[in-house]
Automatic annotation (TrEMBL):
Residues of the signal peptide: 1-21
Taxonomic classification: Bacteria, Pseudomonadati, Pseudomonadota, Alphaproteobacteria, Sphingomonadales
Domain ABC-type transport auxiliary lipoprotein component: 31-189
Gene3D superfamilies in alphabetical order: ABC-type transport auxiliary lipoprotein component (3.40.50.10610)
Keyword Signal assigned: yes
Source superkingdom: Bacteria
The entry's keywords: Signal
Alphabetical list of Pfam families matching this protein: ABC_trans_aux
Name of this chain's protein: Cholesterol transport system auxiliary component
């Protein structure tokens, strides 16, 4: 019994050193759309054009849940205690889908649904979704590639928004990135709606 107690006492300090991951931040960041879709209003491909909005490709610095800061031309850091609730590319795709529906009336389909009604297809790359330390701005850059329904031609266009950041901290950066993302989503929706 004494031997067992001695082993237990020897292991206790070691247990305090073991960590199974970093401490989560006090809150997680998400995107909220400024262009709301009416609740309870049915949508039909018989009445409106359809579109598939795919999750954009991202560079490695955006494939994490953290918010990148372009510290210099050749170095990237991350905002302390700032973490997305899910990957930024998925958040941005959902924001674009809601904005396109609200601004154009188009029916946004899932990839499975688009096989039945091909409609238009929007793909692209989210090139930047972070902070530029030199200019103190939140930056969202999206390169869109659009194939309109009934066409095989690909249209490409770059969209960009920059919003000043009061401080490079989780709260300020989250607010500014949400504004910039909504500006880009509105630009994309207007392009799709032409």
């Amino acid at each position: 019994m004494l031997k067992r107690s001695a082993i237990l006492l020897a292991v206790l300090p070691l247990a305090a050193c073991i960590s199974f991951g970093a401490e989560p931040p006090p809150s997680l960041l998400t995107l909220t759309t400024e262009a709301t879709v009416a609740t309870g209003q049915p949508q039909s491909s018989a009445d409106a054009a359809t579109i598939l909005v795919t999750v954009p490709a991202v560079p490695q610095k955006l494939s994490v849940l953290r918010v990148p800061v372009q510290a210099t031309d050749t170095s990237v850091a991350y905002v302390k205690d700032a973490q997305w609730v899910e990957p930024p590319a998925q958040l941005f795709a959902r924001l674009m889908a809601d904005t396109i529906t609200a601004r154009t009336g188009r029916v946004v389909l899932s990839s499975a649904q688009s096989r039945i009604d091909p409609g238009s297809r929007l793909a692209g790359e989210l090139r930047d979704f972070g902070v530029d330390a030199a200019t103190q701005e939140a930056v969202v850059i999206y390169d869109g590639a659009l194939i309109r329904g009934g066409s095989d031609a690909i249209e490409k266009q770059r969209f960009e928004a920059r919003v000043p950041v009061a401080a490079i901290d989780a709260r300020s950066v989250g607010i500014a990135l949400n504004q910039a993302a909504n500006q880009v989503a509105a630009q994309v929706a207007d392009w799709v709606g032409r």
